[in-house]
Write a structure and sequence with these properties.
- The protein is built from no helices and 10 strands.
- The radius of gyration is 17 Å and the shape is globular.
- It is mostly beta strands.
Length: 170
């Protein structure tokens, strides 16, 4: 089947493309719930990829806190992640209809302890997570989420799958 030529003007967004991603993570209240390790959002599907969830300013993943990360083009209003140019869901473009699922993955970073030795900081408790995939007009093209609490780390696994939420057509 021959592909139709693209009739859009340069800079014009595809109507089915992801324009932004909003990720809400509520950290649990347990004494060891917080983490300073990296957290990644992954999208499943033919154009799937991962994005680092880290604020451009300030700390995230604090015990009992609700963090909202906004991924989009660097310099766009509301985008608040560190290194947005590397965590931009518009470049390359992702077909929103091709996203079949989402997940959170906790990374590991050695941190120095009080003895000055590197060790692995292991745990993160996720009480709730929700991902909204937003199209060029700002409309919600997909939603994924899950309620916990769930532990992520070396002893319990690093990945938490997020299922489709009401209103998501899959």
């Amino acid at each position: 089947m021959a592909r139709q030529p693209d009739s859009r003007r340069p800079g014009q967004a595809r109507p089915d493309a992801v324009a932004r991603i909003r990720v809400r993570v509520r950290v649990g209240d347990d004494r060891m719930a917080a983490s300073d390790d990296p957290l990644f959002l992954g999208l499943r599907g033919p154009a799937g990829r991962e994005f680092r969830l880290a604020f451009a300013r300030g700390r995230g993943l604090r015990r009992g806190a609700e963090d909202v990360y906004v991924l989009g083009p660097a310099g766009a209003e509301g985008v608040n992640v560190a290194h947005p140019e590397l965590n931009d869901p518009t470049c390359p473009a992702i077909d929103a209809a091709g996203i079949s699922g989402a997940y959170l993955r906790k990374g590991q970073e050695p941190i120095p302890n009080v003895r000055g030795l590197g060790e692995m900081d292991d745990r993160l408790q996720v009480a709730e997570a929700e991902v909204e995939i937003l199209g060029p007009g700002g409309g919600v093209a997909g939603r994924f989420g899950r309620r916990g609490p769930f532990w992520l780390g070396l002893l319990c696994g690093h990945v938490m799958e997020l299922g489709p939420l009401a209103g998501t057509v899959r």
